[in-house]
Amino acid sequence: MTSRAVLALNAGSSSLKVALFHDERCRVRGTIERINEAPHLVLDGATTPSDALPRLTGTGHTAVIAPLLDWLEAQFGDVPLSAVGHRVVHGGRHHAAPCLLEPAVVDELRELIPLAPLHQPPALALIDALHAHWPTLPQVACFDTAFHRSQPWLNQCFALPRRLTEEGILRYGFHGLSYAHAVRQLPELIGERHRGRVIIAHLGHGCSLCALEDGQSQATTMGFTALDGLMMGRRAGNLDPGVILYLLQQKGWRADEIEHLLYHDSGLYGVSGLSDDMRDLLASDAPAAAEAVALFVRRVVREIGGLVALLGGLDALIFTAGIGEHAAPIRQAVCHDLAWLGIKLDDAANARHAPRLDRGDGPAIGIVAADEEAEIRRSTLACLPASPAAPA
Ligand SMILES: Nc1ncnc2c1ncn2[C@@H]1O[C@H](COP(=O)(O)OP(=O)(O)O)[C@@H](O)[C@H]1O
Ligand SMILES: CC(=O)OP(=O)(O)O
Ligand SMILES: [Mg+2]
């Protein structure tokens, strides 16, 4: 079989995650953190001297990509790239599967920028930059929204006039690459229960929940945009739309000020007044930090209650992403408040972040390490023409 290598790029609002896969092996993986302020590449599982890393002088995704590609070529020039795969947060109504990035698709994705203003522009900037760098290399879009196209129609609808629903004002849902990856890990982690009623809690900088049956998305907390649902690092989540009308009409806020409030100034950061990072809040003894953490937990518990009602019960609760994987006190508080569901957390297993956290009876509880890049690799390869058969 021909050898295949994929560069996976995951453009986040404040970071760029990168992984280079060669066949089954991951050759290098890392995150460019604080991309809009002071970008620096942190490689997974390695303490690399800074002079061996790319020198990132400009800020933003467009500025870091050229030095990153030069560095990758210098370090891994022996890896014959077959394609680049991108996480594209919004695929709208028409993309239920990954696809090759033809010019018409890129134009269509540009139209979705208002629906994902933090994520869609950096992904599109990377697609343009990669095309300029390697004009003939196939590029594939892997959509966060695609995983949720399986939701029953009622769970995709807002109670709005039909004409708006028909226009595509729907609950799309996000974090689909993370959920798809988690679902693949479930048979090994929870056995036959993977076919049952499962809730996955993706708690990272952005946060959402997904209710699944037989591995298919049934409902999710994010909606038309990634603003809905849970409280997040800098996003409020679920909010009475009357608050927005009040700010517009009574307080004279402009639309761009409201956008900033919703995407940047709310959530853990807004409530604590300190930080958008759960680590800082858990380490702080400021009352406002404790309140932000308590509200975060309260919102998770309340939304899980709603999803359990839709599923008609719960067979497993799975945590993933930065907070879900690493913040034992958050998992503990959520599980404590869900004791009425028969959830019983093994505190020792929770403290050591073990894969299985339940005490053997009641719903299974587990942790899956998020790996959107592995899902990007898999989806990207699936979009490429099959390898020519090896000569006999
Ligand atoms: N050890 C930890 N304890 C508590 N929270 C953590 C820990 N490690 C990471 N986090 C949280 O995870 C968040 C980032 O999660 P991640 O899934 O990497 O987000 P994203 O991909 O959206 O940038 C951080 O903002 C931080 O709040
Ligand atoms: C969709 C979304 O919120 O993504 P992230 O968690 O990467 O910000
Ligand atoms: Mg993320």
TrEMBL record:
<feature type="binding site">
    <location>
        <position position="10"/>
    </location>
    <ligand>
        <name>Mg(2+)</name>
    </ligand>
</feature>
<dbReference type="InterPro" id="IPR043129">
    <property type="entry name" value="ATPase_NBD"/>
</dbReference>
<feature type="binding site">
    <location>
        <position position="87"/>
    </location>
    <ligand>
        <name>substrate</name>
    </ligand>
</feature>
<keyword id="KW-0460">Magnesium</keyword>
<feature type="active site" description="Proton donor/acceptor">
    <location>
        <position position="144"/>
    </location>
</feature>
<dbReference type="InterPro" id="IPR000890">
    <property type="entry name" value="Aliphatic_acid_kin_short-chain"/>
</dbReference>
<comment type="pathway">
    <text>Metabolic intermediate biosynthesis; acetyl-CoA biosynthesis; acetyl-CoA from acetate: step 1/2.</text>
</comment>
<feature type="site" description="Transition state stabilizer">
    <location>
        <position position="235"/>
    </location>
</feature>
<protein>
    <recommendedName>
        <fullName>Acetate kinase</fullName>
        <ecNumber>2.7.2.1</ecNumber>
    </recommendedName>
</protein>
<dbReference type="GO" id="GO:0016301">
    <property type="term" value="F:kinase activity"/>
</dbReference>
<keyword id="KW-0418">Kinase</keyword>
<comment type="similarity">
    <text>Belongs to the acetokinase family.</text>
</comment>
<feature type="binding site">
    <location>
        <position position="17"/>
    </location>
    <ligand>
        <name>ATP</name>
    </ligand>
</feature>
<keyword id="KW-0479">Metal-binding</keyword>
<dbReference type="InterPro" id="IPR004372">
    <property type="entry name" value="Ac/propionate_kinase"/>
</dbReference>
<feature type="binding site">
    <location>
        <position position="372"/>
    </location>
    <ligand>
        <name>Mg(2+)</name>
    </ligand>
</feature>
<feature type="binding site">
    <location>
        <begin position="202"/>
        <end position="206"/>
    </location>
    <ligand>
        <name>ATP</name>
    </ligand>
</feature>
<keyword id="KW-0067">ATP-binding</keyword>
<keyword id="KW-0547">Nucleotide-binding</keyword>
<comment type="subunit">
    <text>Homodimer.</text>
</comment>
<comment type="function">
    <text>Catalyzes the formation of acetyl phosphate from acetate and ATP. Can also catalyze the reverse reaction.</text>
</comment>
<feature type="site" description="Transition state stabilizer">
    <location>
        <position position="175"/>
    </location>
</feature>
<dbReference type="Pfam" id="PF00871">
    <property type="entry name" value="Acetate_kinase"/>
</dbReference>
<keyword id="KW-0808">Transferase</keyword>
<keyword id="KW-0963">Cytoplasm</keyword>
<feature type="binding site">
    <location>
        <begin position="322"/>
        <end position="326"/>
    </location>
    <ligand>
        <name>ATP</name>
    </ligand>
</feature>
<feature type="binding site">
    <location>
        <begin position="277"/>
        <end position="279"/>
    </location>
    <ligand>
        <name>ATP</name>
    </ligand>
</feature>
<dbReference type="InterPro" id="IPR023865">
    <property type="entry name" value="Aliphatic_acid_kinase_CS"/>
</dbReference>
